[in-house]
Amino acid sequence: MAAQVEHQEQHRRASQRVLLKFGGTSVGKFSQEIARIALSSLSQNHNIAIVCSARSGKSKAEGTTNRLLKAAREAVKPNSTGHRAIVSGILHEHLNTAKFKNPEIEERLKRDISAECNALEKLLDSLPKREDVPPEAEDKILSVGEKLSAQYLTALLEDHGIRAQYLDLSDVIEPDLAPSFNQEFYREVAHAISRRIELCGDKVPVLTGYFGPLPGGLLKQLGRGYSDLCAALAAVGTKAKELQVWKEVSGVYTADPSKVPTAKLLSSIDPREANELTFYGSEVIHHFTVEQCLPSIPIRIKNVLAPQSPGTLITPSSQANLQSHPKRPTAVTVKHQITVVNVHSHRKVEDADFLAQICKILASWSLNIDLFEKNQFHISLAVHSKMPIIKGPEDRGGEQDAEDLLNQHKDLQHAIEELSEYGSVDVVKNMAIISLVGLQLKRSIGIAGRLFTALGDNNINIEMISQGASEISISCVIAEREALRALNVVHTDLFTFLD
């Protein structure tokens, strides 16, 4: 028996690694399922490593990362000690989950959690009182969320009899490696992560999704989802067989299954489709993740609550398998919290300097341009605030932190004031973008017409249209209040009836 176990262990060590990435909701609500998935992977002789995000709460607004950011904002306010209550809440939440069969493992984890939170409080106490949190300090504060998650998962695996090792990647970027965010930089980080993993030997590495401070701040440089990128870099560095991103849905669907009951699971999608869906509102995967992994490492989206489901595979499509005229797009998605900004200029907008100044102003106030149309004297832009990307998207109930909403409003007002120097400006708020995504949409005869007809026949007004900027998407702006109805109308007309 011992010889058989040793043989299996040798086979597992020699096999290609499989990277398992778990999000904050899975860590917070379904940790026992994570342990079972790890045991199942090991029983199949897979050589695994795990990357995790910071624990989420009942809603994203209550997640560890959001609370850490709130604590940082409180700490820099004059005469404020509000950050201490936030840290205390984080401490007690994580201590309450540290309950295992093995008392030694439980006590060690509780000591580690207390040490992390004590160090966090000292860091927050030391912050200078100023308007903004210094980026380097914000990065250190953020790292605590992933550290606590990885420490917890390491202890959980050990309590289930799995030899595991916690890996803190907050110092993985070498001091002499100047972050330039080009491929060479990411390749160096991937190699550094793989070296850390190899040092774990036979133990299962449990990595923090946070992988070090970056100039200007990790969130501002990469946005939320950096833990997906970390998993991709680990997969690349170890030449993994596959990167599995575990969520609470069974993969990518033709539409959000929580909003469209007839949505169908997609067995596979092209990476370009995955990136386009992510850009236009679907939480598929961080686009940098796809860029790093493919074409050599496939990415599979799987369901932590249904591990037997094959999920959705993200891998380059074979040109030979593409239909010359696909009968329908791959998916339909909606992007919320869009504002349309109309600038009526007193001069022709063909002036390149004019366009450059408009874009520069919007970017300076953290406003991203999603769609764009113009004529000689008029330019319309569908924009969204980068704040939800940095601070965290709204929860399922549509509520968002009041301070973040106020900051977004102020940013928009400042942008309008500066844009007014170039002409009269009007703003249409509470809008959404509905997008069809699929390879070769340009060659799909009548698809755009069917989209606009479906909306028009159901009295859903179109504010803006974008077709041609991308070969794989058609988008239009509609009122936010119509977004859910539009999603179902379009899916019924272009997907359900064509299946």
UniProtKB/TrEMBL annotation:
GO function terms (MF aspect): aspartate kinase activity; ATP binding
Coiled-coil segments on the chain, per record: none
GO CC term, one of those recorded: cytosol
Keyword line: ATP-binding, Kinase, Nucleotide-binding, Transferase
GO biological process: 'de novo' L-methionine biosynthetic process; homoserine biosynthetic process; lysine biosynthetic process via diaminopimelate; threonine biosynthetic process
EC code: 2.7.2.4
PROSITE patterns assigned: ACT, ASPARTOKINASE
Domain of life where this protein originates: Eukaryota
Pathway in which the depicted protein is active: Mycotoxin biosynthesis
InterPro entries the record matches: AceGlu_kinase-like_sf (IPR036393), ACT-like_dom_sf (IPR045865), ACT_Aspartokinase (IPR054352), ACT_dom (IPR002912), Asp/Glu/Uridylate_kinase (IPR001048), Asp_kin_monofn (IPR005260), Asp_kinase (IPR001341), Aspartate_kinase_CS (IPR018042)
Family, similarity comment: Belongs to the aspartokinase family.
Protein name, UniProt field: Aspartokinase
Species: Letharia columbiana
